[in-house]
Design a protein that fits this description.
It contains two helices and ten strands; from the N terminus they run ββββββαβαβββ. It is α+β, with helices and mostly antiparallel strands and 187 residues long.
């Protein structure tokens, strides 16, 4: 079952794909032509996709947050998350757990395990963690340390990464071949 989950929108039936970028996202002329007429499903911070690949490309806009793509070379099951910080603190408990790297990545890994995938066969791509603003440097560093550490601790295979820097990123995932295109967004 295809699932898009969020801490604030737990039911997949209530989540509708967005066919155009959110208003704050810059217009990207080539976005509708990324991969042979695939439309784009935008994931907001704290949302994740777990399950069979959708028919649309998946995209998210990143600053200090991290996007992680989990996949197996045999198409059929993917995980994609956009988390904002590693773990929750007492003042952030109102948010859903998909906003936090510890929770989102554990959910995805558990879903892969339930589908019969061994950790060493799961491939991962990591993007984001920019430090465009002085106040996001610590968060970006914590997110990066967590993401790469999660891959190592769980014996996953890192196949690609683009993290750090002083620019944002919009990433686009082609769910049929796991290609990722990165559009850098300068401050």
């Amino acid at each position: 079952m295809n699932r898009m989950e969020s801490g604030t929108t737990p039911s997949p039936a209530t989540s509708q794909p967005r066919e155009s970028p959110p208003p704050s996202t810059p217009s990207i002329p080539f976005s509708k032509q990324l991969w042979q007429n695939q439309s784009i499903h935008y994931l907001m911070p704290g949302e994740l996709w777990i399950g069979p690949p959708p028919e649309q490309s998946l995209s998210t806009l990143l600053n200090s947050g991290i996007a992680m793509v989990f996949y197996h070379q045999q198409p059929g099951f993917i995980g994609f998350c956009h988390f904002l910080t590693v773990s929750h603190s007492a003042d952030c408990v109102r948010r859903g757990d998909a906003h936090y790297g510890e929770k989102a990545t554990a959910r995805i890994l558990r879903a892969f395990s339930n589908e019969g995938y061994a950790p060493q066969d799961i491939q991962v791509k990591i993007y984001g963690a920019s430090h465009m603003q002085r106040e996001t440097v610590a968060s970006a560093q914590q997110n990066t340390t967590f993401a790469f550490g999660f891959v190592r601790r769980n014996n996953l295979r890192l196949t690609s990464s683009d993290t750090g820097g002083n620019y944002g990123r919009q990433i686009y995932l082609n769910p049929t071949n796991f290609d990722v295109k990165v559009r850098k967004i300068l401050p």
